[in-house]
Design goal:
2 copies of one chain form a homodimer. With 693 residues, chain A is an alpha/beta fold. The first copy, chain A, contains 24 helices and 27 strands. In chain A, the strands form 7 sheets. An 8-stranded parallel barrel of chain A has the order 3-4-5-8-9-10-11-12, surrounded by 6 helices. In chain A, strand 3 (23-25), helix 1 and strand 4 form a beta-alpha-beta unit. In chain A, helix 14 (400-411) packs parallel to helix 16. Chains A and B meet through helix 2, strand 7, helix 21, strand 26 and helix 24 of A and helix 2, strand 7, helix 21, strand 26 and helix 24 of B.
């Protein structure tokens, strides 16, 4: 270990418990909840195994009027729920870490889709998060009832083995709804003055402490107002930082660990596009000065040097992590062992949050094993030795899928894996995506794999060599994996329009694909339409790039908002503000169906004709697999047999263009299952089932 | 039974099985799938008990590359899944009905959020339904594999007890993707000609028939193109009706039951706003003429006379139902017993589909017990006798919650329930909502309850009497239920803006609440802004009403589309087309923050100032519980005790303004649980849990 990092491995006392080191996986959603207890336990245990001294399960609603359905939360409504969650506590303990449970109530943000309970909140205001009804203004009975539930849940969690019990007070949920005068309009003892608005939280902390304070550390998560100055970032309305710090001081005797969040969720979980590593640090430091107790804060920390420096500065006592702990559960052990260049750094792209926002279980663009520990038995650092590791393997294409497949085959002990890439660099579509404005950190996907590939003795990377089918047949490989990726179509085919768009021909000077734009092709005049039928990062990225060069850019899109997918990575508002400031105009609800030199035509959301004058168009319409090589090879089984090729597979975008995370998952899976009877078809995965008896 | 209806009770032979009558619950989603097998079984069994001769479970994906996650489908990926679903077959059989399972593959529409499998489809085109990636173009191996899975699933379903096995070919899913040249661009034997495009479907039918045709009836669901002429309705692109009828004739020997759907899902499950009862009838009739086999089609049929007439006309052999069977599982028995005015008619408001589209389990605005058969042990027609039924009950307010509560208390045997309503009519907010353009059938919520209330000997309804707190105390009731509803705020408070809007005062001539608009108040000039911060039916309804009177109406809304909630009831496109034709303009992404005589001001989506000239504004911003009566009573426990009031409760919008379905659910629940220790708090409900062992 580097001596500079030793400070990270000091134990930290929190109330009656001691964390073995300063690495702390803060509560974050997994999609497993208490409904999938074994999947949850395996997902959390791997972090303890990787060296995180504290590992928390996600938000645990204490009562059915905080029902998160459709997302799956760690409901702890009764003793059976607590027992299910106890599997996680036991699995975390098995590796010497402390286990935390974040007792939670969503207040007016609770969907209550499963329970159909009425929402409750300090005042009857519409939730900005949930359509479907207003909340009941909590009466004295509701306040007492929820405090009883919190205590009951705390007791059951302690009995189930948890060491750290939260009173979740952040992110705009019930506690914050009480604290903020924006959402607390009460005129009784729970509203008005700061002390009154803090009363529900203080009373709950007191009651929980009385119930389990002797056995467990009491943590609370708080939200500071935040004000990063990032355009489009919301702060948390209503609670000024100075007020929150007063509350911290007031409650300090009741709390063993302060878990600090900053601003709204899109700010707190800010992506690498708009926030640097450690951006919450100044706010955490202010909390540090207001309390005598340990403080943890996140910050998308990936650098051990910065982590150690932040601890030394006194800003925090623990390095909180959600995203980085997903990307690399073994980060602490890698630091401890000085294997710094093995750390799989979080890209800050919020694919994990995209999965959560689309109501799926956790996933990670960097770490294909995240969430698959129980389901598929995948370990992020342990790879089953392959049967027949001396079989020569040829992987054609070093994009995300090809790189990942090669790394995993290498780790499984294959001795002769050749990755042959036609371009002079590896990386596939990431080669140009990482160069789009604000997307630089996405390049970490390439960087980590490049280091691994260079280090694996059985893997050789050859760039600048484009293989034809005959070359593949002659290569001498026994297993061939085609990972030739995808390209953006230049013909204007788009969702709902399977036929090419008249006039769409990327051979013309005024028609561009995104790849052409990134490679330097420019339209013959200053007015550019970027047509976005895709909805994620490509069109805004190209638009921003061209606007920065002085083009008059307008994005035209059939969607009702620009880049709706970015809302699910928490980037939408910032991205739209960013482009607005850059002078990019947007036409929503508009479909382009024809291109001519000097203009584009189409229709608006009411099917009325629409047209615009422009000097060129970038078509971000639809991708197509580059699968000609695969198709040619697969079409000639005799030739394959004659060449000694026993297995021919296709992964990543060459199979079907998808998000980068899915291409990596694909390459990873094939490498894990290359010894299966039919490696092309995913093996069944374990699903937790309801009792039938 | 009315002799005219006897035809509905004739048995119908389908392949090797015989349906006991012509009532057929077609496959429809429940949100229970194979993951919640006991909840599913109880939900389906109640329909068999109510007299439906055929009862189907929902769509059952045959393989992990048709994974519907996040929604829960009836996955039948292995034998354990089949056993879970078998609980439903057994429960349906217990009441003498046949059980059906709709084997399914979503093709390019499969989210695959849980399995993370690549999507498959006949051609690599973007799904219009699912963001997140293109499909793999199926190769010969995929075709054979999915047919094997279909056969395997069919065999396991038959072994689990199902009588009717589907090859689902409708609604734009995999079979339809093959049939339509819009989505099938193949150049092999599965693309091109009609026979080629039908090959995958025909081969699958053949294989399934070979596997289980001796034991089970083989059904297939098909989609006809449809063309209702309703503005905004999509037809199903690509397959002309004549072609589909040729396919029907080609496949007729392979099929025992044709299940006919029409157009896209929003057309097929058309709401009462835009489609009359039986609107699919002409298309079903055309299928009837192309086949020798029985035909079933839906049509939101609620009238027994029309059902009998449709059978007699030969258009169909079976009355298919999804929504009506949810609204009243006992419809067949009520017809058989001549209890026609007991039928709880479907409102056609698609609350059931709203629940599905928001990834929740089934619900129904008319039938609060739907989906609660296992969870809460609720039966739609059987009500546990109350403890102490002679306790006098006063319900204040005869809106949805109050009406429902009174009906259930009456059915539980209460002998002295008084429902006192201040207005001259019962119905609450539905009194005016049902008079908004196109919303007439929503009035069925009142109508069914009015009939029940008139019939229950223990319930008396008193209208036109407004009770003050003193009146309630003097009333002589032992149990008091406050159901005084909600009102739209006239002060402009809206999501994210908890303070009143400057200038928003409904006492002024140019400021209107929706209730005022419905009661006849009109602005002093022709230019009206309807400001919609709500997003559902109220603002479009008021806008349409005013436009029809000649006002120049524009809807201003912070949402990116008009009435986003209507997309989840499948009405959005039609509603927007409807208002566009009515000359209503829409300003999206715009927040109004101030009102003056002659203008409104606010900001656009980039926080830039915005204003408009107008003569008046209708504020559809936020509702408020009318809870003054409850608050006054609850604030004086001594007075309650002195008056002999042992229980004081609050239900419906008086508790918290929500969708009408939730108000009804609330009133129903309180009446079911009025004998509980704390009736105000919902009793725990049964949840199916994962195995821990």
């Amino acid at each position: 270990m580097d001596a500079r990092h030793a400070i990270l491995f000091e134990p930290v006392r929190i109330g009656p418990k001691t964390l073995p080191n300063r690495f702390y996986q803060v509560p974050h959603a997994s999609g497993f909840g208490s409904a999938r207890p074994k999947t949850q336990a395996a997902f959390r245990a791997i972090k303890a195994e990787g060296g995180w001294g504290g590992v928390c399960v996600e938000y645990a609603p204490v009562s059915p009027d905080s029902d998160e359905t459709p997302p799956i939360a760690a409901d702890i409504w009764d003793e059976r729920d607590a027992r299910a969650l106890g599997l996680s506590a036991a699995a975390i303990h098995a590796h010497g870490a402390l286990a935390g449970l974040e007792l939670y109530h969503g207040g007016s943000s609770s969907p209550n889709g499963g329970s159909r309970a009425v929402r409750v909140a300090p005042s009857q205001l519409t939730s900005e998060r949930q359509w479907g009804g207003l909340a009941k203004e909590m009466d004295a009975g509701d306040i007492a009832r929820l405090q009883r539930e919190w205590v009951r849940a705390a007791r059951q969690a302690a009995d189930a083995g948890f060491d750290i019990i939260y009173v979740y007070g952040a992110h705009g949920y019930l506690m914050t709804q009480f604290l903020s005068p924006h959402t607390n309009r009460r005129t009784d003892g729970y509203g008005g003055s700061l002390a009154n608005r803090g009363r529900f939280w203080m009373e709950t902390l007191t009651a929980v402490r009385e119930a389990v304070g002797g056995d467990c550390a009491i943590a609370t998560r708080i939200a500071l107002h935040g004000d990063s100055g990032v355009p489009g970032a919301e702060t948390l309305p209503g609670i000024h930082t100075d007020d929150m710090l007063k509350l911290v001081t007031m409650a300090d005797d009741l709390v063993d660990l302060w878990d600090v969040t900053v601003g709204s969720w899109p700010e707190d979980s800010g992506t690498s596009r708009y926030y640097p590593e450690g951006h919450q640090r100044p706010w955490a430091h202010r909390v540090r000065e207001a309390t005598a107790k340990p403080v943890v804060a996140v910050g998308r920390y990936t650098s051990p040097d910065l982590m150690a420096e932040v601890i030394r500065s006194g800003a925090v006592d623990l390095i909180g992590s959600a995203r980085q702990a997903i990307a690399d559960p073994f980060l602490p052990r890698k630091i401890a062992e000085g294997r710094l260049d093995e750390i799989r750094e979080c890209t800050g792209s919020n694919l994990c949050i995209f999965r959560e926002e689309t109501f799926n279980h956790v996933g990670c663009v960097q770490n294909a094993t995240a969430g698959e520990e129980y389901r598929r038995g995948w370990h992020p650092e342990i790879f089953a030795p392959a049967a027949g590791p001396d079989r020569p393997v040829l992987i054609v294409g070093a994009g995300p899928a090809g790189m990942e497949c090669a790394v995993v085959l290498g780790k499984r002990g294959f001795t002769a894996v050749h990755v042959v890439e036609a371009e002079p660099e590896i990386g596939g579509k990431l080669r140009w995506a990482r160069r789009l404005p604000t997307l630089g950190d996405w390049g970490r996907i390439i960087d980590w794999r490049a280091i691994q590939l260079a280090r694996l003795p059985g893997v050789q990377v050859i760039t600048g060599r484009r293989l034809a089918a005959a070359d593949v047949l002659d290569y001498g490989a026994e297993l061939v994996v085609i990972a030739t990726g995808s390209e953006w179509r230049g013909d204007g085919v788009q969702p709902g329009h399977p036929d090419p768009m008249p006039g769409a021909d990327p051979g013309l000077p005024h028609v561009l694909t995104p790849e052409q734009a990134c490679a330097g092709k420019r339209p013959p005049g200053p007015r550019v339409v970027v047509y976005d039928a895709d909805g994620y990062y490509v069109a805004p990225g190209v638009a921003e790039m061209l606007a920065a060069e002085g083009f008059e850019v307008s994005v035209v899109t059939p969607f009702s908002v620009l880049s709706p997918v970015s809302d699910q990575t928490l980037e939408g508002d910032m991205l739209r503000a960013h482009l607005h400031r850059a002078g990019v105009s947007v036409h929503h609800g508009t479909t382009i169906t024809g291109v001519s030199p000097g203009s584009v035509t189409g229709h608006d959301r009411h099917d009325e004709p629409w047209s615009a004058v422009c000097d060129g168009i970038v078509l971000v319409t639809q991708q197509a697999s580059q699968d000609a090589l695969y198709t040619e090879l697969a079409g000639d089984p005799e030739a394959l047999a004659a060449a000694g090729i026993a297995g021919l597979y296709r992964i990543g975008d060459a199979l079907a263009p998808r998000m980068i995370s899915e291409a990596i998952f694909d390459g990873h899976r094939l490498a894990r299952e290359i010894d299966a009877e039919d490696p092309a078809q995913p093996a069944p995965y374990r699903r937790e089932r309801a009792e039938l008896g």
